Amino acid sequence: WVWRGEVWLKRTMGGDGDGHPDGEPKRKEKLEGFAFWESIGRPKFVLAPMVDQSELAFRMMTRKHGVNLTYTPMLHSRLFVENPKKYKKENYESDPADKPCFVQFCGDDPETLLAAAKMAEKDFDAVDINLGCPQNIAKRGHYGAFLLEENDLLRRIVSTLHDGLSCPVTCKIRKVNSHNFQDTLNLAYDLQAAGCSVICLHGRTKEEKGHHTRIADWEAIKILKGRMDIPVIANGGVETYDDAIKCLEQTGVDAIMSAEGLLENPALFSGNTVSVDDLAAEYITFAEKYPPVQKGAVKSHLFRMLHPKLQVHTDLRAKLGKSHSFAEYKAVADEMRSRTMGPHHSQTGWYRRYRKNEPPRSGSRPTDHSSVPVSHAGASAAEQPQGRAEATEEEEGGEEEEGGDVSTVERESKRRCPDPNPCLAQRGEAWAAEG
C-alpha cells in the first residue's frame, strides 16, 4: 500500500512527489483512465485478442456488426524485437479504419516489452499486456496468466511501459486463483497504481479452460468494478446479445469482451439474426479485402462459424480442411448453403463444445442461425447419427480458448513432432526458444 501511494503521489504532483514551486500539480501529457476511455468513444462491445483469429479481416467484419473496440492477436515481445521486419510481415496488421484498436504483447521483461511496444504504439490507441493466456506455451515462455502471482514483476512491467510510451497501457488478466479473490484485487490495485489505464478481467482462473471450463464469475467482475478507479472490461460467459446486456447490468462494467462467442457468431453484438451461411460468405469477402498474414486464419474462422453443420456434413469438413485458396473456401461455403435450409435451434455451436450442460446466462439457449443439415437423400440430421463425429484437430486447425492463446507455431509443432525432444530442430526459432 505504501508503494501504491508513493507511485500515485509522484504521478499526481510531479516526479519527486513535492509538486511544482507554485503548488500546481504537474500536467499529464497523455490521456489515461476514464479520460482516455472518453476519447475513444466509451466503447461497449469488444473483440478479444485471439492468436491467429483477431486478425484485421475479422476485426473489420465484427465492427460492421456492433463491435466498437478491437484487439490485435497477441504478439511476442521478444520475437518482435529480435527480428521486427520478419515478425511484422508474418504477424502484424493495422489499418486507419480499425479504430480504436489495442495492440497486445506478451513477455516477462520490462525493457523488451517497452522496446516492442514503442515500435507499434503509433499504429494503435493503446498497448495491452497479456496476463491471461492459460496455455502451456505461456507456461514454458513465462508469460500470460503464469505471471499473475508475480506482483513485483508486473508492477515493473506496467510502470516501465507507462513511463516510456506516448499511449496508455492496459492489462488483460484472469482471476489469480479460485479460493481467495483478494489476491486478484491486490493485483488489480498494483496494476492500477503502476499506470494501467484499463483493466479487463476474465472471470475464470487459468485452470478453468477446455474441458475444465466453468461458468464465468460475473460476481467477481462486479466486485472488481466497484474497487477500480479506471475502466473495467468484463470477459467470459457471453454467448448471446442478451448475455452481453445482462452482464453489463449485473456487473456495472464499462464494456463487454467476447472471444469464442464472436468466433461462432461475428454478429453477436448486433443483436440481429444473421445466418451462418451469410456470415461465412461475408467473412470470405472481408478476408479477400484484408488478406490475413496468417494463412490458416480463414480456414479456422470458417470451421468455427460452420461448426454445427460440419458435424453432420463430414465430407465438407474434410474438404474444408484441405482447402487453401479463396476459391476453395467459397466452394465449400456455397455447397453447404445449397445442402441446407430453414432456421433451427441447436446446442452444437462452437461456443458450447465444452459447455453442453452449462445453463444459459440469459434464461434461454441461443438460436443457432445456421440451417437444418440435410443429406443428399433429404434425410434430416437427426436421422444421420453416423455423420456427427467430432472433427479432428487437424481438420479444424486446433482450438482457440477464450482469450485466444493457442498459437499456430504450437499446433504445427504438435502435429509434426509429437515427441518434443528429437524434433526440436524442426519447430522453428520461436517454438524452440519457448520449449
Which strand order spans the largest sheet, edge to edge or round the barrel? 1-2-4-5-6-7-8-9
Oligomeric state, counting identical vs distinct chains = single chain
| Structural class determined from secondary elements | alpha/beta
Q: End-to-end span in angstroms?
A: 37 Å
CATH architecture of the largest domain: Alpha-Beta Barrel
Mean pLDDT, to the nearest integer, reads 81
User: Mind describing the biggest β-sheet?
Assistant: 8 strands, parallel, barrel
Count of folded domains: 2
Tell me the CATH topology of the largest domain: TIM Barrel
CATH superfamily of the largest domain: Aldolase class I
- The total strand number stands at 11
Quickly count the helices.
20
Summarize this entry quickly.
The chain has 20 helices and eleven strands. The protein is an alpha/beta fold and 435 residues long.
Characterise the protein shown here:
Its EC number is 1.3.1.88. InterPro entries: Aldolase_TIM, DUS-like_FMN-bd, tRNA_hU_synthase_CS. Its cofactor is FMN. Keywords: Flavoprotein, FMN, NAD, NADP, Oxidoreductase, tRNA processing. This protein has 435 residues and is of the alpha/beta class. It folds into two domains: 239 residues, Aldolase class I (TIM Barrel, Alpha-Beta Barrel), CATH 3.20.20.70; 69 residues. It has 20 helices and eleven strands. An eight-stranded parallel beta barrel has the order 1-2-4-5-6-7-8-9, surrounded by seven helices. Helix 13 runs antiparallel to helix 14.
